[in-house]
Amino acid sequence: MNAHDEDRMKKLLQQALPPVDGEAGPDRDLWPAVLKRLDAKPAGASSGWAWFDWALAVGLVLLVAFFPASIPVLLYYL
Amino acid sequence: MRNGSSEVLNAFRQASPEAFEAAFETLFRLHQRAVFGWILRIVRNPATAEDLTVETFWRIHRAHRRFQPSRGFEGWARRIVTHAALDWLRTTRPETELLADLPAPAAADPAISAEIRSKTALAFSRLPPKLRIAAMLAVVEEQPHKDVAEALGISVAAVKLRVFRALRLLRKDLQQQGITP
Predict the structure, then answer these.
(1) Which of A52, B24, B82, B155 could cross-link with B151 by S-S, CB 3.0 to 4.6 Å?
(2) Does the distance separating the beta carbons of A5 and B181 come in below 8 Å?
(3) Closest residue in A to B39 (Cα–Cα)
(4) Which has more confidence, B66 or B88?
(5) Are B87 and B100 contained in the same domain?
(6) One-letter-per-residue 3-state SS of B75-94
(7) Which residues of chain A have a CB within 8 Å of the CB of B84?
């Protein structure tokens, strides 16, 4: 694509998608929505580790304790 | 996006929780219009822009400790805004965006039919989000490459490259539809 083609594509794109009025503000006051968003508990947030994390950690400790030969394999996949 | 709120942010990084919230509201009032406008330029839908403005200020609130007053608020905030919009573009089906609220061109070129414009807009919506956002800001909205680069966290040369790749892919898509741009 040469410079001429590039200019034609730019003009076509500007015709297909005219610029919007970026100076326009929102139709409503968004501050209450921001406060509501801040008060909402973030998705996935929890007080600590989930039970699955603990089970996995315990499983790994037991595996290493009973089968020390598995350490290099675990390190390889980390 | 106006600057001048660095003092506010600098203050609320070290202030009490009450002062922090007051400073954050001041910051919101100062910048919400600019943030909304920048997002609207990318997503082109006022309702989505409102949602993403709220999301952006939530991200600013969450990340305020990483803000460095010496580097200015404007660039930092614009990067957060742009990434919120980029995340939205990544999770939205191409056909559902852009086309819903297409404004009519102010000075429509008679040589370009409405069908070609529509197909171009649809082809554009199918581009990878990273290319689309660069082309949208730099070509459609005619924002300075420096501002686009700052917003995306890339170099000016990278912006130019993304725009070029976007236009090339767009041309290829249109050619496959039998349209010779």
Answers:
(1) B82
(2) yes
(3) A22
(4) B88
(5) no
(6) HHHHHHHHHHHHHHHHHCCH
(7) none
